[in-house]
Structures are given as structure tokens and as C-alpha cells.
Amino acid sequence: MKHIFKTTLLSALLLSAFATQAVQRNITVTAVVDPTVDMTLADGSALPDALTMEYNVVTGLQPISQQVKLWTNSTTANLNISLASAVNLASGTTQVPLTVKLDGKTLTTTATALTYATYFPNGNTTGSLAVPLEISQTTAGALKTAGTYTGTVGLVLAQATSN
């Protein structure tokens, strides 16, 4: 009798388990990883995904400046940095060219060399010296067209293949 009771109880539990409704949600997680180089804010946190340039009706768009650090796993290789493409803010058909500088060097789509010894005088374990990353309106001045201007600054950082 005891065996029949256990079998009945087990059967009831199994049936109730299968009768329970469940839902599964899958979330895809991605990460872009380059174990050779990176650029962060000076405190080591990630660069922001978005920045806002303030507008002054007399002088135009106000420059943005962030202190950044470069990171590398090499103890000797120089770094190269460039823009993925020319940088403009656009609102409709109106475009405003921007200038991007790293440590006072104007960046273009052609690679700019960053000498390892200059930027990593203390080695690579704590990142480079903190340097300013600046984004500014190429030709300062008031804009003629109202709107919400947007654009993307694409920075390409890579280890140099030769020093």
C-alpha cells in the first residue's frame, strides 16, 4: 500500500510539473574585443557612446574635450590612430565639418603615429599618459539652419606594424 501511495504521489508531481506553463527568453550578448589596443577615459571607464556639443548663438558649437588613455599589450610597438571617415554633424542637408584632435594632433583618415616611448613612459600596465581628445567645429561661427545635428566620430586605433 505504501508503494502504491508513493507511485501515485510521484505521478501527480510529474504531471503537475509538465502542466506548468513556462516561457524562455533568450538575450544575445555581444562584445567587441581587441586584446591588442584600446582607448578609454582617463579613469579607465569606457568612452561615452554619445556626447552633446553645446551651441552658442555668437560663437557656434562649443568644443568638447575628454581626457583619454590609450592601452596596448605591446611593450615597444607604436600606435596608429585615424578617423574612419571625415566627421560632420548634419541636420537634413546642412552639414557642419568637425575637427578631431588627440593630444593636439589633428586626426584625418590617414594614420597618425603615436610613439610608444612618448605615450607610455611608465610602461603599458597603467595605460598611456592621459591626453585630451578634442572635438570642435572646424570653422567657428553661428549656424544658419536650425535643427538637431548628429554625426559619428569613428576612431581607428591600431598597433603599428613597424616602428
TrEMBL record:
Keywords from the named record: Signal
The protein, known as: Fimbrial assembly protein
Organism: Rahnella laticis
InterPro entries reported for this sequence: Fimbrial_CS1-type
Signal peptide coordinates: 1-22
Keyword Signal: yes
Superkingdom field: Bacteria
